[in-house]
Amino acid sequence: MRIAVLDDYQQAAHRFADWASLQADVQFHPEHHADPAGLARALAGVDVVVAMRERTPFTAEVLDLLPDLKLLVTTGRANASIDLAAARARGVVVCGTESPSSATPELTWALILAVARHVPQEDARLRAGGWQHTIGMDLAGRRLGVVGLGRLGTQVARVGAAFGMDAVAWSTNLDPAAAAEAGVRAVSKDELFATSDVVTVHYKLSARSAGIVGRDDLARMKPTALLINTSRGPLVDTGALLEALHAGRIGGAGLDVYDVEPLPADHPLRSAPRTVLTPHLGYVTEDTYATFYPQAVEDIAAWAAGSPVRVLG
Fold first, then answer.
1. pTM of this structure
2. pLDDT per residue over 11-22, tens digit each?
3. Which residues are catalytic?
4. Which CATH number fits domain 2-100+285-304: 3.90.1150.10, 1.10.3730.10, 3.40.50.720, 3.40.50.1970?
5. In angstroms, what CA-CA distances link 55 with 29, 32, 174, 216, 259?
6. Architecture of 103-277 per CATH?
């Protein structure tokens, strides 16, 4: 059995699980195979692929290029970049893993604080020999607007309350009673964007939700307000966000996710003002990897024994 572990950017997958227990040829790929043809060449003869979240899409077209593939394991409970119907039609079993829910909310707050208190700029200035240069935003008494009050958005809102913030939320089908149980007040989308000092996005990406934070929403934001996105890049209209940043119509942005990942070297976001950018680190923690990779090994062993577990779709 040949196994390929994809997008092992930190070259760390080998130390988080007992791959030797599979008694298989395991190949770790630290490089990202963005081109389908290149991916097909890299995976020629591979029976099992372990995909890290949505870093590499497995569309019907890509699956057609992988005739040897029998099992596709994704880290996490779901993967929007895998065409499950196409995999099923080609006889490819798709399995997932559990996914801890604390890591992304923690990074969300790292970004909020970094943007609000200008941490990267002050760090760089201090290292260059300077001293105080910026004036930070207070969070206590300000409004936190949560777009999408699921398990991650709820955790972010609770931390906001600990900072003394007034937390409000909106989503298409948000139940006001459920929001109240989480200590959050449900408001309209227009009110959230117009009155919040920090807007943080925690929405599931789908064809319907792409661009859910659009030009009109950004135009409603206060000129001092911050936008944070640790969910999925396409949820926010990137072109409109760039315009708002360059025009000074919002106070800043903290981004962990992008329309194309890895973010191209010449992408205009890399030079956008008043931004803090991280390379999709939301789930990249020791505890998360210690869940993902051992369960991926369990998935492979169970499939090889004829009893697949955590099958998706």
1. 0.94
2. 999 999 999 999
3. 232, 261, 280
4. 3.40.50.720
5. 12, 8, 29, 30, 12
6. 3-Layer(aba) Sandwich (3.40)
